[in-house]
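Homework help board

Subject: predicted structure for assignment chain

Our instructor gave us this sequence and asked us to write out the predicted structure in token form, then describe one feature. I got the tokens but I'm not sure how to describe them. Can anyone check?
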Amino acid sequence: MKPEDSDDTEDERIILEQILAGQKDLFRFIVKRYESPVYGMGLSFFHNSEDASDFTQEVFLKIYRSLPMFEGRSRFSTWLYKIAYNTALNNVKRKKNYRSLAEDDIVPDTETPERSTLREIIRQAVLEEVKNLPERFRVCVDMFFFYDRSYQEIENITGYPVNTVKSHVFRAKKLLREKLEIYSEGGFQ
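My token output:
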């Protein structure tokens, strides 16, 4: 089940209330539930496991310290991802080392070796082209396709209006289609 499912959301609300009431050790359940997606976001920004691990720790420290400020006006996951996203952007600005998409985000195909090799070539080309997108497009594409966030959630996380998010995703897909056209012409479909 995803953290957004109704049963999980209710369980999460109860855990959050208990943490705020003083049972700080329950925070481990929040970490367990969101560690993997936050780490994945770190990989998509920094593209190496050491920086992604540091980022993950930093995000959970911020979440822990900021938990009393969570007002429940949005899903907890949206609030958490917004903090993670802003933390990543701030780190990128400091380090000037923005990299997009974790290489493990796309599940490899288990077809024939030739087909698998072709898919890997195309996957690498897509990853490279996504890295070359303007940042505003790249962020929206990452969150929409690789983090399965809705347009509304992307608005809440990035601050871009929903129509802008839709436009960015549409334009990014168009740019990617144009840049990757060589692969469809070359029989790599």
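Reply (TA_rk): Your tokens look well-formed. For the description, you could write something like this. The longest helix spans residues 27-46. That's the kind of observation they're looking for.
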